[in-house]
Design brief:
single chain; alpha+beta; Glutaredoxin; 2 domains; 8 helices; 59% helix; 10% strand; globular
């Protein structure tokens, strides 16, 4: 083979190899872009997937921010901010099973304390949401209002819990709006709000969600099966 033809052949091989590499790189880049797009879309639609989930169908022996038998062998205290996404996950995904399996069967007494990381609410919307929840509690619907808040949470300090929305939530669960507005405007239950804050600070809780299960501190969101193990361990310890 003449040298110029041999050189040409080598060039063609190199050119073909380069084209193959470029094609592989383009495919890899496209896969990465598609993967990122899928993740972004999933994050965008997650709030709409949770909206409408109202939590357990009922809370036994509901009393303001507590439910269940006060004499139950296990006491769970939850410390959560109404704008905390992991608190929302617990409320919508884990709490319903805890209520069905342990609160309704008399094994767990459950108390919910609105609480911000380190004792500070995530923002003013958290503070106003807490005011609203306790004003709903005045009419026996603390838990229904809590469910309403978490089912409409889409982000932190993005306007989910502005006053007009808080009033709309109250109307949706059929509260007496005159009583609710008076309670909200006069900040009637500031003492109840401070109760949870003070208890959480005393327990040195610096993040949300946090749980005291018969005094044992559990930090962060846990799927039901993991949370169940902690409850079962607490039950076994008191048998």
């Amino acid at each position: 083979m003449p040298k110029h033809q041999e050189t040409l052949s080598k060039r063609q091989v190199i050119k073909q190899e380069r084209a193959k590499r470029q094609k592989r790189q383009r495919i890899t880049t496209m896969l990465i872009v598609c993967g990122v797009a899928i993740v972004v879309i999933a994050l965008m639609i997650f709030p709409s997937m949770t909206t409408g989930n109202k939590g357990p169908s009922s809370r036994p022996n509901a009393d303001w921010n507590a439910m269940g038998d006060p004499n139950a062998p296990v006491i769970i205290e939850e410390y959560s901010d109404f704008q905390c996404p992991y608190c929302q996950m617990f409320s919508l995904r884990t709490e319903p099973s805890v209520v069905e399996d342990y609160v309704k069967t008399g094994k767990v007494y459950f108390v919910f304390y609105p609480y911000g990381p380190g004792g500070y609410y995530i923002g003013p919307e958290s503070y106003d949401a807490t005011k609203s929840a306790f004003c709903a509690g005045e009419q026996g619907k603390f838990w229904e209002y809590k469910d309403m808040l978490y089912s409409h949470l889409t982000g932190e300090n993005v306007g989910d819990f502005v006053e007009s929305n808080l009033m709309a939530f109250a109307e949706e669960i059929e509260l007496d709006m005159t009583r609710f507005k008076t309670c909200y405007n006069e900040n009637t239950y500031e003492d109840k709000m401070l109760e949870g804050i003070n208890k959480g600070i005393e327990a040195e809780i610096n993040g949300t969600p946090a749980f005291l299960i018969n005094g044992k501190l559990i930090m962060g969101y846990l799927p039901y099966e993991n949370f169940k193990k902690e409850i079962e361990a607490a039950l076994a310890a008191v048998e």
